[in-house]
Amino acid sequence: MMEKVRGSFPYTLVAVLLITAGYIWLVVYSSAMPVAASTLGHAMGVVGFAMMLMTEVLYSVRKRVHRAAGWGSLQSWLRFHIFTGVVGPYLVVLHAGWRFGGLAGFVTLMTGVVVASGFFGRYIYNQVPRLESEAELTDYSAGAGPSSASGEGLAVARRTLSAWHVVHLMLGAALFSLAFIHVAAALYYVTFAR
Amino acid sequence: MDNGGRWVKSGPVVVALGALVLGVVLVFLTGQSILSPGPLNAVASDSPIGGVRSHAELSCGGCHSPPWGSDTMEDLCLGCHEDVASQIVAGTGVHGLALSPGNTVTCTGGCHSEHKGATAPLINFNHSKTSFPLTGKHLTVDCQLCHSNGVFTGTPTTCFACHQGDDAHGGGFGQDCGSCHNTGGWSPATFDGPHPFPMTHGTGRASPCVTCHPEGLLTYSCYGCHEHTVSNVLREHGNIANLDDCVRCHPTGRGD
Fold first, then answer.
1. Chain B CB contacts of A188 below 8 Å
2. For an interface test with A, which of B21, B27, B30, B34 has the most A Cβ atoms less than 10 Å from its Cβ?
3. Residues of chain A numbered 155-174 and touching chain B (CB < 8 Å)
4. pLDDT in tens, B1-60
5. What Cα–Cα distance (Å) separates residue A2 from each residue in A6, A78, A158?
6. Can you tell me the distance from the alpha carbon of A106 to that of B228, in angstroms, rounded to the nearest whole number?
7. What is the DSSP letter of A121?
8. N or C: which end of chain A has fewer CB within 10 A?
9. What pTM was computed for the model?
10. Which of A36, A158, A176 is nearest residue B2 as measured by Cβ atoms?
């Protein structure tokens, strides 16, 4: 049973706008873009990555751990997943100072790829009807409008969603492995450096 | 929802482990350079310091000691820059005088920066925080030209303190160079007065200084304009011996 995902967009948009406004104000006030290793840059990286960790872990746990079934509706967790999955990476991109060199830069690019993949999946997700009865009212074949019932389009959409899901998870897995290497390097060279 | 079966269960784990291994391998294969936040300064010095001519020739370990190591980054910096270490120990020179004993300012936390590019400067001291913000050509001169003998605190901020040797006016215009000159360069200079002769004489607008001062600002000549030829002046002033100090009789530039 799936419901079209709505509800996270306003909160996400407000958060992104507030962060952007604050960032622009800071850049104008200090006449400089905060670098990754600065106090603010570092803080954005930590908070952004923490949100990305929540994005990857919490929704998956809610879906797969039986004991988590009482933690709230799946839809609510999906909304939270989308919120942290957009705001977290946005903070990470700001933390990177719009630089894309080296491993850290590749991680930033991978972050963008995974977020884009998430938007794509959300689009597919919204195309798959909640009930079989809805599929009887709409023909999902490519280029066709509402017409006679057809299960073929529905099957295609579900296969696409399934394939996308596999790709999205793998991209996320690769992203987090590389991100951990970057975090380890930052701790070694900066945070705990003597 | 169709979870894709076994691919969802094992695929991400395999990819995660694979990416981790690949990332670590790349780190070591590239000598950790893929972890660098930016290119190191590669401007070659005339003579090698610590066996290299630029920071770009160093490995990461040349400056970055492990967190569990005994050396700080400053120890590694001073291990190569022995002249700086000597200054600090003796309390002399640029670093010895700028850094008081027991100071906690680090090399990269105070005045020096790296990983900003192959030709980026290694000094990033913010002079705007002092009582003498740098502008114009002051921005590009060597620190030692103004701060001789490593003295920073209390350095005079008057123009004449540094530019007495540049005075082309023989002291005739005092020591306030800034009244006519700015840090963009000695020329062009601006002068708004007071001037003992109308500066708009002749054209109604201020003429270039060289029009009336062809041989320097301490002398003048009225013969630079077409009306004031030697023959014309002689014809009208035949009974006057000294015809080089016109202003003495014509202080406003008028003929009467």
1. 66-67
2. B34
3. 158-159, 161-163, 165-166, 169-170, 172-174
4. 444 455 556 888 899 999 999 999 999 999 888 999 889 999 888 889 889 999 999 999
5. 12, 11, 12
6. 76
7. H
8. N
9. 0.67
10. A158
